[in-house]
């Protein structure tokens, strides 16, 4: 029984046309026992940057608090909001600080990055010791990974409009959750566009 | 294995905790106090390794009271829960405290709240929570019978249902203590379980002839 699969959870993020979506399931459990069904794993860093964390629940909370602390210091020093690319670097180095006693969580970062005055979608993920990966399609984390890979590879197309992206992310996540025993109980989907951020709670199979 | 259960009522919290202190197969004490009063409207109920339980809970209670003395203002339930979680999360990688906790509190603005914490430092704010083997029996019962705004009588009735279930199906039995947390204070409530008349079992209560 792996420590990364102790509490369960799934997070997925996808890039669309001038938008990103990030979604997570809502289950908090201890191995096979479900304790809570209201535990979203996506956190807002600022209007342009979101963080999804899966893995051991205690480390999710600890890492999130550490990162918020560092982001707040960044904001006080730099007098501006942190961008997703810089935040991604901050996450990677925070995790590597604990290289020989790591936080058992694998983050996914998504947001809108300002490049030459234009907002471009940006996603990245790291493993539990901070090895980053940057792609331009989709990324996922959690024990639900294999199922999510299959769904996302099939369903994703480049340049999806926000509505289509929302549908795609939702369907990919909901179908994958059905194939993982330790994730599920609904989902929370965040759709981030340059104008606003929409949050929707999905009702999936309640088991 | 120890049972710990708490749920929200309309504007207060009920906490049920077993009061057995034992070691291996021996029951040493049946009126052990496993609930610690943090202040007027917050209770910390803990189950687990008894030494860790006492050390950790007394440490938390004293630090919470120190905060009140220093700042002339008590910790809110949410702040207290996050503080406890932080202590647990730090300790798990140093010298782990093997205690599972429920923090039950009532605040004026927020109302009643329950924070479920396990020994690793995972925390969830919930409407009802159960620790230990009792969770396997009682979570589904509470899913079915718990409602959002129970009165005290309905809450105690639900507690009796839970205790009955444990008495019927759980291998390890014992006495329980019930605490009621309100905005004005915390009191202990007697559970008053009526002794049920057992259904007469032939061969046990009445003789049955042995067939030749």
Explain this structure.
The complex is a heterodimer of chains A (207) and B (212). Chain A is of the alpha+beta class. Helix content of chain A is 30%, strand content 34%. In chain A, the strands form 3 sheets. A 5-stranded antiparallel sheet of chain A has the order 10-1-2-11-12, covered by helices on one side. Chain A has a 5-stranded antiparallel sheet with strand order 5-6-7-8-9, covered by helices on one side. In chain A, strand 3 (28-30) and strand 4 (33-36) form a beta hairpin. In chain A, helix 1 packs across helix 2 (84-96) and helix 3 (145-155) runs antiparallel to helix 4 (162-177). The longest helix of chain A is centred in the first third of the chain and has 22 residues, at 57-78. Chain A is globular. Chain B is α+β, with helices and mostly antiparallel strands and 212 residues long. In chain B, strand 8 (111-117) and strand 9 form a beta hairpin. Chain B contains 4 helices and 12 strands. Chain B is 32% helix and 30% strand. Chain A binds chain B through residues 7, 28, 30, 33, 35-36, 38-39, 56-59, 61-62, 65, 101, and chain B through 85-86, 88-89, 92-93, 116, 118, 120-124, 126, 129, 135-136, 139.
